[in-house]
Automatic annotation (TrEMBL):
Organism domain of life: Eukaryota
Organism, scientific name: Rhamnella rubrinervis
Family: Belongs to the eukaryotic mitochondrial porin (TC 1.B.8.1) family.
The protein's name in its UniProt record: Mitochondrial outer membrane protein porin 2-like
Main location: membrane
GO molecular function, one term: porin activity
Pfam family, one: Porin_3
Amino acid sequence: MSKGPGLFTDIGKKAKDLLTRDYTYDQKFTVSSHSDAGVALTSSAVKKGGLSTGDIGTIYKYKNTVFDVKVDTESNISSTFTFTDILPSTKTIASFKLPNYNFGKLELQYFHDHATVTAAVTNPQSPSIEASATFGNATFAFGAEGGYDTTTNSFTKYTTGITVRNPDWSSTIILGDMGDTLKASYVHHLDQLKKSAAVGEISRRFSTNENTFTVGGLCAIDPLTTVKAKLNNHGKLGALLQHEVIPKSLLTISGEIDTKALEKHPRFGLAISLKP
């Protein structure tokens, strides 16, 4: 694939990952294994409140094809097939669920040095069409995405965004939620290995006249331990500690408190990911 502007979903992804990725307030346990034949087996269990769920997944890679199949505790089967370069500079993704025959998605992605275009059709019984286009290069990109429901003849989403980035920092502005939310973010890496970073994000929701300002950061205490934290103007303070217990196996402890309502119980989460 070309090293162009990337997918539209990549716009603002660095800030989103710093502020949301790995934060969990449930109990999650995941075990993964890999074979030399290109097969990966993953089993996970999640406890949320008094409800426990889980799934078993298998990923098989063969040349330019990836097969991903998951079965959950309710016997639902989710399958995703990814084909690369069926046509030059393209990726085709087909996904469906069983026994829910009403869900299915076929997506085509095209990558160019200065543009990326995607088109997808979902739900065969009541088709919805989604499309996105991104233009630019690895330093500057702008684009838009939209969704249209053919059953109701109405738009389900439209979003536009622009980003400027280099190895040390990235800045993004996104107009989303069908024009109701304007979000701006800035990420700055504090070291060459990108193991420490600071992020700031401000969001404006026009329908409610609500502003949300969030600051956060990532810091590597040592080669095996990472700390993240975030705080917004509504008083929500979150933090996590992630430690590599053994190579590729992570222990993550997360917590969140409302500094403006300390009488509320804080939230805590624990995630263990083992990769033998």
